[in-house]
Amino acid sequence: MEERGSISIHTENIFPIIKKFLYSDHEIFLRELVSNAVDATQKAKRLSSVGEFDGDLGDLKVSVAIDKEARTITISDNGIGMTAEEIKKYINQIAFSGAAEFVERFKDSGDKSQIIGQFGLGFYSAFMVAERVEIVTKSFQKDAEPARWTCDGSTEFAITSAAKEERGTNVILHVAQDSEEFLETARIKTILDKYCKFLPVPVEFEGQIINNPNPIWTKQPAELTDEDYKNFYKELYPFSEAPLFWIHLNVDYPFNLTGILYFPKIKNELELQRNKIQLYSRQVFITDEVKDVVPEFLMLLHGIIDSPDIPLNVSRSFLQADANVKKINTYITKKVADKLNDIYKKDRTTFESSWDDIGVFVKYGMLSDDKFYEKAKDFVLLQNTTGKYNTIEEYKALVQANQTDKNDQQVWLYTTDAEKQHAYVEAAQNRSYDVLKLDTVIDSHFIGLLEQKVEKTTLKRVDAEIVDKLIERDEVKESVLNDTEKESLKKIFEQAIANQHMTVEVTALSPDDAPVIITLPEFMRRMKDMSRNGGGGMMFMGDLPDAYNVTINANHSLNQRILNAKEDNKERIARQAFDLALLSQNLLSGSALTAFVKRSVDLIDKE
């Protein structure tokens, strides 16, 4: 048997065009050819199961072999094979006509992401690395004759008889000079590990099976133990800490989707965790850039999603527009929210102990997705400075009596650094106020979300005002100083401070409050926090000088002493009291700190 011919197309030099277009993804050729071999093998199994093939299936597998001396890569399978007529149909006609259509459509396009696998191009990706390709095949059909197909990258082909005893197909790539890297064992092993690690048929390379044909996401949750899930996580991420918990995805309507998503210990490292979810189609790796399949905030999760409804080769525009992808996106969001809510309800102790690791993720989700917010508002936790956790509703009930201002607004106090703001936290606690810890990278945005969503509630950082003004009441404290004395005291401090960005006022506070309190107004502080964290439109705030309020406690004995001090000593003591206030806010440094220390020694020495 011998047949020679020309593939009937209207576009000349098709293979150089294919190679040029696909060059950036040239390693994909191995995924395509191994996937084809897996399909042929699975077809043999299916035909056997329905009685259309009554031969011995044998040990079904796919093999990949390199012959460096002969400069060949061979992909072999013992699947259904092909007859000479099937070669002409599937290789010469269907696949190549698709290739011709591809060239016409994409030869002037810059979008390479749509190319491989479209229009039946999977097999012809072999010519990205090969100067000549052979197919040696024998069909499973009774009395079928083995056949050989050869093509040198032109439109000419030859089909001849072949010597092959067993059914199946060998695809032999004669590697081109510019693709010698693919004759290296390590290079092929890397590609197989990337794309073929979980193919559903054993894949052999260098005498070893390199894949896991039955990954746990293909099994039913009832078949699996916690140890199975943890071991699979180690297989995926060998250098990561154990996950907190996981979700097993398994849905067949209105789309097909399986997979496992793990909650890692993420803490505040938002950027370091991305691209850890892998997207598969029928156990063939597609990509780890899944932001159009998975909502952005869920990119912080780890794991695998497998859906046959997503083709092997997809473009960004396809993912963004495809209805199934949108449904998958919504479904995954719901499943994650339901899982968290389930853990919260069934085992709140475990949920609270995991909060440091998942809190940033939950808040990010609430900020990113309104539907997720509606579910998460019932289990998001607010931690106070004593370490106690409350949900939003629990916290509203907790502070209702003591932290409602004269306008019937609840005021939630918070700290971004309990140690640095300790004096202010303590002052609030002395009033029996509760103080929340909102100190993660995302909390500057989360604060705004709470004020937007929680009715009749405002949040103030604990050092944004003197404690009496944090929660305004219709209470007026009497001052031991008259108006003239207050004005004199104000002038003394203004001269001692000599800073146009410090606004001085004298106010009647409790004698137990500090003599001088420095605060940065909530609006200014919040804008600066958002600027530091990359808040859109707020970058300019980082360049503005801080405008502080300096509150002088009219009822503190030290300030009364300043008024009664000798004229040449008033500003000196006032400056010392001011520097103490700066010190409590971690605002004293450099020469000002040196002067404060010297002044302190001098004052102590004179005492």
UniProtKB/TrEMBL annotation:
<protein>
    <recommendedName>
        <fullName>Chaperone protein HtpG</fullName>
    </recommendedName>
</protein>
<keyword id="KW-0547">Nucleotide-binding</keyword>
<dbReference type="GO" id="GO:0016887">
    <property type="term" value="F:ATP hydrolysis activity"/>
</dbReference>
<dbReference type="InterPro" id="IPR020568">
    <property type="entry name" value="Ribosomal_Su5_D2-typ_SF"/>
</dbReference>
<feature type="binding site">
    <location>
        <begin position="118"/>
        <end position="123"/>
    </location>
    <ligand>
        <name>ATP</name>
    </ligand>
</feature>
<dbReference type="InterPro" id="IPR001404">
    <property type="entry name" value="Hsp90_fam"/>
</dbReference>
<keyword id="KW-0067">ATP-binding</keyword>
<dbReference type="InterPro" id="IPR003594">
    <property type="entry name" value="HATPase_dom"/>
</dbReference>
<dbReference type="GO" id="GO:0051082">
    <property type="term" value="F:unfolded protein binding"/>
</dbReference>
<dbReference type="Pfam" id="PF13589">
    <property type="entry name" value="HATPase_c_3"/>
</dbReference>
<dbReference type="InterPro" id="IPR036890">
    <property type="entry name" value="HATPase_C_sf"/>
</dbReference>
<feature type="binding site">
    <location>
        <position position="36"/>
    </location>
    <ligand>
        <name>ATP</name>
    </ligand>
</feature>
<comment type="similarity">
    <text>Belongs to the heat shock protein 90 family.</text>
</comment>
<keyword id="KW-0143">Chaperone</keyword>
<keyword id="KW-0963">Cytoplasm</keyword>
<dbReference type="InterPro" id="IPR037196">
    <property type="entry name" value="HSP90_C"/>
</dbReference>
<dbReference type="Pfam" id="PF00183">
    <property type="entry name" value="HSP90"/>
</dbReference>
<keyword id="KW-0346">Stress response</keyword>
<dbReference type="GO" id="GO:0005524">
    <property type="term" value="F:ATP binding"/>
</dbReference>
<feature type="domain" description="Histidine kinase/HSP90-like ATPase">
    <location>
        <begin position="25"/>
        <end position="165"/>
    </location>
</feature>
<dbReference type="InterPro" id="IPR020575">
    <property type="entry name" value="Hsp90_N"/>
</dbReference>
<feature type="binding site">
    <location>
        <position position="82"/>
    </location>
    <ligand>
        <name>ATP</name>
    </ligand>
</feature>
<feature type="binding site">
    <location>
        <position position="32"/>
    </location>
    <ligand>
        <name>ATP</name>
    </ligand>
</feature>
<feature type="binding site">
    <location>
        <position position="169"/>
    </location>
    <ligand>
        <name>ATP</name>
    </ligand>
</feature>
<feature type="binding site">
    <location>
        <begin position="97"/>
        <end position="98"/>
    </location>
    <ligand>
        <name>ATP</name>
    </ligand>
</feature>
<dbReference type="InterPro" id="IPR019805">
    <property type="entry name" value="Heat_shock_protein_90_CS"/>
</dbReference>
<feature type="binding site">
    <location>
        <position position="77"/>
    </location>
    <ligand>
        <name>ATP</name>
    </ligand>
</feature>
<dbReference type="GO" id="GO:0140662">
    <property type="term" value="F:ATP-dependent protein folding chaperone"/>
</dbReference>
<feature type="binding site">
    <location>
        <position position="316"/>
    </location>
    <ligand>
        <name>ATP</name>
    </ligand>
</feature>
